[in-house]
Amino acid sequence: MALRKILTQGDPALNKVCRPVENFDQRLHVLLDDMKETLAQANGVGLAAPQVGILRRVVVVVDDQNQMVELINPVIIHAEGEQTGLEGCLSVPGQYGVVTRPYKATVRAQDRNGKEFEMEGEAVVARCFFHELEHLDGHLFVEHTDRLYTVEELEAMEAEEEKA
Ligand code: NI
User: Fold this and answer.
1) Which among 35, 47, 110, 139 is placed 20 to 30 Å from 89, CA to CA?
2) Residues whose CB is under 5 A from ligand 1 (ion)?
3) CA of 21 to the centre of ligand 1 (A)
4) CB-CB contact of 61 with 46 (8 Å)
5) Contact 75, 109 (CB under 8 A)
6) pTM, entire model
């Protein structure tokens, strides 16, 4: 396993539409293992292959049991409700924005051996599904907000709220 470099906003790889995975081979397994190691090291909740420069439909998300789940060729097949909250991205380091997403979602995907399965998520996991799947079509969360905040700004806002 090896750490991969996480690309940041401005890198053209982050704006490309990724191709489906057709070969569930050793190469894919190495990519998945590397993505999981990279995600753990970055302390993130999700990572998409284009973020490490691989233009394939591969995503790793952290579920509500804190386990990493590999999603190959994922598609959202159901969504309901709504949540509005802060969102960030390993490719947009240190910047956060308020984004509205569905509250619940079901994803259909394949595992590393090509076997199809479905996964449900709500709250932060559902937010992660939408955020990561967008990466596969070349989109970043910043497109859903017109204001980004730094950690310092968020802390200052929290302090103001506590005073009030
Ligand atoms: Ni992201």
Assistant:
1) 110
2) 89
3) 20
4) yes
5) yes
6) 0.95
Q: Which entry of 70, 80, 132, 161 is annotated as an active-site residue?
A: 132
Collapse the DSSP code of 91 into the 3-class scheme (helix H, G, I; strand E, B; otherwise coil) and give the result. coil
For residue range 129-140, list pLDDT tens digits in order.
Answer: 999 999 999 999
Q: How far is the CA of 164 from the centre of ligand 1 (A)?
A: 33
- The pLDDT, as a whole number, for residue 164 is 78
CA distances to 31, 36, 82, 105, 160 from 128, rounded to whole Å, are 20, 15, 14, 10, 29
**Both structure tokens of 79:** 């969504």
132 tagged catalytic: yes
The β-bridge relationship of strands 68-80 and 46-48 is unpaired
